[in-house]
Amino acid sequence: MTATQWTAAALLQRYDEVRSHTERLAAPLSPEDQTVQSMPDVSPTKWHRAHVTWFFETFVLASNEAGFAPFQDQYWFLFNSYYEAVGPRYNRAERGVISRPGAHDVGLYRGNVDARMQDLIDGLDQGTIDKVAATIELGFHHEQQHQELLLMDIKHVLSLNPLRPVYGGAPAPLVDTDRMGWVEVEGGLVEIGHREGAGFSFDNELPLHQVYLEPFRLADRLITNGEWLEFMADGGYRRPELWLSDGWAQVKTNGWAAPFYWSDYDGVWFEHTLHGTFPVNPGLPVSHVSHYEADAYATWAGKRLPTEAEWEHAVRTDTGDAAEPHGNLADTETFHPRAAEPGNGRLRQVYGDCWEWTSSAYLPYPGFHPAAGAIGEYNGKFMSNQMVLRGGCALTPPGHARASYRNFFPPGARWALSGVRLADGGAPA
Amino acid sequence: MTATQWTAAALLQRYDEVRSHTERLAAPLSPEDQTVQSMPDVSPTKWHRAHVTWFFETFVLASNEAGFAPFQDQYWFLFNSYYEAVGPRYNRAERGVISRPGAHDVGLYRGNVDARMQDLIDGLDQGTIDKVAATIELGFHHEQQHQELLLMDIKHVLSLNPLRPVYGGAPAPLVDTDRMGWVEVEGGLVEIGHREGAGFSFDNELPLHQVYLEPFRLADRLITNGEWLEFMADGGYRRPELWLSDGWAQVKTNGWAAPFYWSDYDGVWFEHTLHGTFPVNPGLPVSHVSHYEADAYATWAGKRLPTEAEWEHAVRTDTGDAAEPHGNLADTETFHPRAAEPGNGRLRQVYGDCWEWTSSAYLPYPGFHPAAGAIGEYNGKFMSNQMVLRGGCALTPPGHARASYRNFFPPGARWALSGVRLADGGAPA
Amino acid sequence: MTATQWTAAALLQRYDEVRSHTERLAAPLSPEDQTVQSMPDVSPTKWHRAHVTWFFETFVLASNEAGFAPFQDQYWFLFNSYYEAVGPRYNRAERGVISRPGAHDVGLYRGNVDARMQDLIDGLDQGTIDKVAATIELGFHHEQQHQELLLMDIKHVLSLNPLRPVYGGAPAPLVDTDRMGWVEVEGGLVEIGHREGAGFSFDNELPLHQVYLEPFRLADRLITNGEWLEFMADGGYRRPELWLSDGWAQVKTNGWAAPFYWSDYDGVWFEHTLHGTFPVNPGLPVSHVSHYEADAYATWAGKRLPTEAEWEHAVRTDTGDAAEPHGNLADTETFHPRAAEPGNGRLRQVYGDCWEWTSSAYLPYPGFHPAAGAIGEYNGKFMSNQMVLRGGCALTPPGHARASYRNFFPPGARWALSGVRLADGGAPA
Amino acid sequence: MTATQWTAAALLQRYDEVRSHTERLAAPLSPEDQTVQSMPDVSPTKWHRAHVTWFFETFVLASNEAGFAPFQDQYWFLFNSYYEAVGPRYNRAERGVISRPGAHDVGLYRGNVDARMQDLIDGLDQGTIDKVAATIELGFHHEQQHQELLLMDIKHVLSLNPLRPVYGGAPAPLVDTDRMGWVEVEGGLVEIGHREGAGFSFDNELPLHQVYLEPFRLADRLITNGEWLEFMADGGYRRPELWLSDGWAQVKTNGWAAPFYWSDYDGVWFEHTLHGTFPVNPGLPVSHVSHYEADAYATWAGKRLPTEAEWEHAVRTDTGDAAEPHGNLADTETFHPRAAEPGNGRLRQVYGDCWEWTSSAYLPYPGFHPAAGAIGEYNGKFMSNQMVLRGGCALTPPGHARASYRNFFPPGARWALSGVRLADGGAPA
Predict the structure, then answer these.
(1) CB-count burial class (<10 Å; 0-12, 13-18, 19+) for D376
(2) D212–A208: do the CB atoms touch at under 8 Å?
(3) Which residue of B has its CA nearest to C245?
(4) Would D66 be classed as within a structural domain?
(5) pLDDT digits (tens, 9 = 90+) for B300-326
(6) Residue limits of the Sulfatase-modifying factor enzyme-like domain (chains A, B, C, D) (predicted)?
């Protein structure tokens, strides 16, 4: 959570950019679309729009605005997601039964908070900015996370509708891909985590610490749909010896036989995307697979998933510290991962296609301490039963990804835009 | 399902009345309100509006319209409720995840079917009318049932919203009620069921048949909130000996301690209604209690619930065959049951306040045969694990109730607008 | 619950007969067999043995024995089944986790209570006998009910064991059966219920009351396995139009495709019985079908199930009031229903083969009042969500069945030894 | 899985020791006790006895015995625990419904396999011994794991019995404990894992590899019941800020308010143990707490749990490589953890009291590869959603614990004999 040096003008401009991007993403969605919660993990669009607004109201305005009063008392309760310290929360699984405030009312809420935030920032002297900018900047990145979730969530909502609604964008042409290559990485005692002065990070990327790595190899691109079809053809979903025990239990209980959004129509695999339902495109990265599937694929391929430290070190070695060296994020042409460009001996598809499952459980770095107060509930308390994903995806907003970023989901989650990059080697001699 | 003698003009007029009443009921509800399914038993408002339209399209237009084509193929699937014979059905519990067609699209669907129905009826000769009128009339009564359900369902949706939204209407003044009296009814071999020539009925009200009754007494009004508070104060919800075994299990599992929509705020009982949340009004009929609660109350009071035959016979004896003798149905001033008028030795609150639980399981009358084809799925297949309710309620549309009408819900259901009338006597000498 | 006139000697003799029959039934079962609870509806054998003993201790000894003290305080709690008035109960679904007291300890408990009961009865004068005999006689019939349940329950326990253990008995030879005939029954106003002076009955068989019946026909024997195979071959388990809605839901949820204990091995249907697993014998009555299946079969056959009043009236008309006119109960040669004897114009297989599903919900007779106190919980509180079965079965102990006996199970229950007898006619003219 | 050098005589002697220890542990348990499965995680005693026998039959006899035939075909299916490669498995959660084979039959099975194993080993030349000894030795350690589980499982079974049965042993006197001290450990690049030549290990302890550690401190003893009572008194189970999110969800869902086997009788905390139910002894280590509780306690105390690498390195530094330096395992006097001896600047209670939760997820070591074939399913496939525990406990058999041993349970598990040791420091400068 180290903050950049901000001025009021820069804060105002960034505030406007981030906030208006959310509204652009919600614009194609009807009030009815914005109301639905299709499963407990999914939140309604209008809830996302309101919750990120609540964040600014609660963590910035409440403690900095003169004569603060909440826009609406009840919103305090409705749009708290998981901050136990702020007070009682509305049950996550029941967000979809709340028809009011409607999409338009949420727009009024956003407008009100935006005006108050702009007034607030406008009136701050630099000394106060230095104190509050970190929280405002956290609000930017928080809202960006929800921009990504908003798209993942509405993708699920629309997937259940027999009318096959389209969110937006157009499909990529049918493509194939060149052979996967490997990037060799030297091991040793390496530094992992966010570096001082390198811009924003979440608290879970800290502290910077040392990890010992054996030499290893990292695949230079993501696994494709075409490769995944080979795994399926070879009985990938029917062979228990390939799977973690909990993963195999899910295969059997849920009848997994293909990635999350694939459906078989008369022997042809189709994929639901935000731009519609189309035959599976073999050259695109496989997406919406769980950690269990990624791990089983790696076992089948005689390889493994990388640890998060391997991933981070390889990316830094390959690209330097630049935040988004391959930064083709937030593809608004397809809202979907893209085919890899031709191989050039370096890592491809690092940030803008699929979040990449690692073999690392989401645990605190040595010496990690969450921030004090409610803000401290941001990350640390989720460090249980989740696996780390690295990189970014086609729905990640510009400026949001970086080498030290730690995303996380439970190993059975499939509605996130997740994919697979293999690793190899790393055994001690 | 005996039909009245219809002319095209009369059918058209009635069609227009029934259809426009549905839209009037939906008018106060936003697109978001119309989308929510708050529990599996509840359907979204826009689903109700579309499903009753689907009924006319499927059972009238499909077999009578020249060059019939459905308005939208997928609607065929989405808005079928339980007619297995018509094809696969969309899972009831997942109606709330379908954001499209939206409320406006459903309006277009309704307009299209209305125009086609009007064209169809306009062009029919009397001979054809005589053949199709029964199905169209069934469609009227079907839509009326859903008008009532639409209100019961949205009442539940709004009840979960911490903003306490109001559907419409205003509260009644605080009232008290005179003492409950008894109407004595002679027994003997009596006729039960719908009589030839008495207008429309559903198939489950047939055949007319004989039942032997011992003499008994029926309460002249419904049990009030005030009387229910006495039951509660006397440990009604804590004494297993008052309860059916399945009912007691629900008390314990669900923590029942008061009627469905009552909440205790700082020691005062409030009730959620369609006109808002107000302190419990002691003189109004108690409502939204399950069969189990009604039965436990009767046991506590040293009385019992009437059988459906007793109820029907008592009402006929008291009021003659007039369909709605006390017909203060569909109260659009409060959308809520009203206080009983002063006693006059006859039955009060028969039709327009609360559906009344009986002690009769919902079973076929002797010689009952469902109609052939999909229409035959209307009633008969639900004759299991449900209890009969008689009368009508404050949400029942005008012209919909009658003495032989058999409503039914599972004994644990509480979201229906149900109340309690006691019986006594009836034991053989 | 009307009692016979008893003497001490007769009571002692009957006590010994009933109690030792239970032990004979448990004798083939190991301590391990007697411990298992294979599903919540099933109770362990040693629990049955202890619970019927607890009944005598609680309802007879506690109020009549001088210086009464329970054999073991904790047993008071462990072996109460559903008598809320007696105190807290041990959770029914967890009877299978109680390893102690073991089977041998339960034997000691039985011996202790037997000795005390014998002492008690021995010392009673006739006046006291006249007061307590009704409760002791209720204890006999209560224990007989559990004898039947003990066998139904252990049948289920053993059915889950891949070793295919045998309880006892030998299979009947392969048989076929003559054509089903019909017995015509005149209707009218008839008396239903237990008659004064006709020996013991449970409270739910009272009061004697009048019911009006249209003329009808009752099948002269039960439906056979062979006939059931025709139903299956004609898609009986795949055609929703044959089923009650709740029944069809169970077909789909539970994958019902044959009676409960049937399994398909390489295209041949086998049936698990207490005497082992054998190919389905076409001439024997079909058994272990739910009410839903019985109802669907009747619909498929163009017939219906009888009401309980029709069944009782037909049996009385056919056989007079004799308790067990066809009394081939408790078949210890096969522990299984037997083939019908050749038709002779009268009802066959009335008592000793399968309990017969009726179309009547289990509800109180007009004027029914449960007994006061804990004993009053015997029957009345179960009058919800259950269907009545009439007759008796091959596991019913001798002397336990009669024309007015009302057995009851939920409509989806299949582990009881239930079968199907059809009715026809009965429609009002 | 590195094997020691074995001779036939040594193998035979060890075989006899391990096998007869299992029977000694089962001896106090009745056939009924041995049959019960009190929850899905628990296995019946007779299942443990049979399953460890099945292991020798399947993995040793089947491939080495001339003319091999299984003792009983069906046992092949019934006593396979999780080896998918061996064939279909019997559903874990239903082990408690299998009454046969009974406890005595399982004894016969054990006797048969023992005789065949002894014959086999007797007849082997040294070359063959060198090949099969590794699998036989794995069987010894497998059986020892089940000896520990057998006791943990029967502890749970007996805990549900209102008769409060005792397994064996006597309580320790009431004790208090001296203040917890800290052992300082230097960090650096350290070796973790099982060392070549140091006797047996499971595959999950390999490969030996390097880990970088910052300097840290490890508590010199376990947290006591007395200290846990302070945590409870300070609202430990009521303060969400102390808990991981998944842990807090379990607190609320399951109503956790104290360790697993504690019950409050009239304001005094009692603890269920294998030697009976007694008031909580403040000086004994707290036991049967989940990872979530251990983590919340550490947060409350301003400390943290150690990583598994920290634990292993600290123990090696403190004690050298000796397998069981503090080896007071398998306490048959109390079957319960004991009070710490007075502090002496070194680590106390390392092996014989409670398994110690670490902050490490159970994941493969760098370069880990499971063995080929069914044996390869031993450990690797469970590396998901579990946390590592280190040390050993009062139920661990002698010779079974070592510094590199990795035990694992899901973070919510409480029926294992688990406790808490704190760590501190370790942050990078």
Answers:
(1) middle
(2) no
(3) B381
(4) yes
(5) 999 999 999 999 999 999 876 554 443
(6) 181-423
